Amino acid sequence: MKVAVVGAGIVGVAVAHALLDEGHEVLLVESREPAFGPSRGNAGWIAHTDILPIASPKILRQVPKFLADPLGPLSIRPAYLPKLLPWLVRFVLAARPHAYERSIAGLGALQQRALPAWQARAEKTGLTRHIHHNGGLYVFGDTDVLEGARSIAKRQASFGIRVEIIGPDALRELEPALKPRFAGAAWHPDTAHISDPHQLTLALFEAALARGAVFEKAEVSNISLGDRPALIGRDGWQRVADRVVVAAGAWAKPLAAAMGDAVPLDTERGYNVSFPDVSGILARPVSFEGHGFVATPLDSGFRIGGAVEFAGLHAPPNHARTRRLYDKASSLIDGLPPFESGRLWMGFRPSLPDSLPVIGRASRNPNVLYAFGHGHYGMTQSHATADLVAALVAGREPAIDLAPFSPKRF
Ligand SMILES: Cc1cc2nc3c(=O)[nH]c(=O)nc-3n(C[C@H](O)[C@H](O)[C@H](O)COP(=O)(O)OP(=O)(O)OC[C@H]3O[C@@H](n4cnc5c(N)ncnc54)[C@H](O)[C@@H]3O)c2cc1C
Q1: Is residue 244 a contact partner of residue 367, using CB atoms and an 8 Å limit?
Q2: Which residue segments constitute the domains of the chain, with CATH numbers given?
Q3: For residue 12, which atom of ligand 1 is closest to its CA?
């Protein structure tokens, strides 16, 4: 079959490989360049142990405190609020206890497949050197939060995830550069991080081309109906395929709408600062709980990033936010290079209110499939998603129930 994939971020590239495995002819269409979006600059953590959606009964209590600080871990630009309201309503609904439990079941099932899928792809493409199995840490400033982590660890254990709650001494042994300000940490020995998201997405992209995928630069503005859907672009550009996969990240909403699915996709903008060629500060990714940022020792340098800003796809970045992340980080980690030596970046997480991606068939055309909306975990979930999409293309029963990921769930 000929399959056209819209979007050459990590999800589109992963889908291309899964389709090539099954002997399909693959056309990858990208409007900008491969790894243009958040797949370029994310924190590089294969965080398959995170099984809790962001919309939770607890977060609703914390939101007012976060919003009080315009440069804090969560912010909404006032001018964007009216546009965001439908998303926010869905977010509140997703935080209701039974909806929250439903999301955990879906997220957990996908996350369980994430690391094995990455390992399998890295082995098949000869890219295992890009994956570092050093585990990851979630560090906590106070003992109450650490106690809360124990109940989360129990939930994680029910998905077969190993988590150990460790005290300050064990934490210092693992990461001596952390200042002695932490009550302890949740230690996830089985998570991994990657060399560099941009380099690895490009390496996988090149590997897909070497396996026979064809790349075209074009902006897809519509998809036709019919057995053999056509991608439609500017100036009469059209490409017909047997199946189309929409992997357009935060930009997928209009394509889904054209296919009859009013999906409440928005973007949680995230920021970071990277220090090229700086190494030796940390050995593994560390998430600073309550501060909304992660520090990752990438092969390309040291990266500090996170935050969630709702301001849509067009507003310019506000790097005062990045400066704030850095200042916080330097109060918690020894030996950071000066802010001025860092490279600043902002990226668009493709986010659904319940923290689950959309994986499934379009309402108006079953030959159009969706693989977008992975929010905070697209790097992690890319290859697991790709395996599910390949099953749909082949008409096989997917390995997990796709109901929680349906475009019609809202
Ligand atoms: C600060 C930050 C830190 C993060 N850290 C992590 C992490 O540690 N671990 C993790 O798992 N995830 C992380 N993420 C999330 C992760 O980066 C994203 O979920 C993931 O990159 C999404 O990949 P994607 O392929 O779906 O989308 P994208 O990377 O956005 O790719 C979509 C592509 O589609 C193209 N496109 C869009 N519309 C069209 C069109 N109409 N026609 C043609 N092409 C089109 C775009 O140009 C783009 O290149 C982080 C994100 C941010 C912002």
Answers
A1: yes
A2: 2-135+190-405 (3.50.50.60)
A3: 25
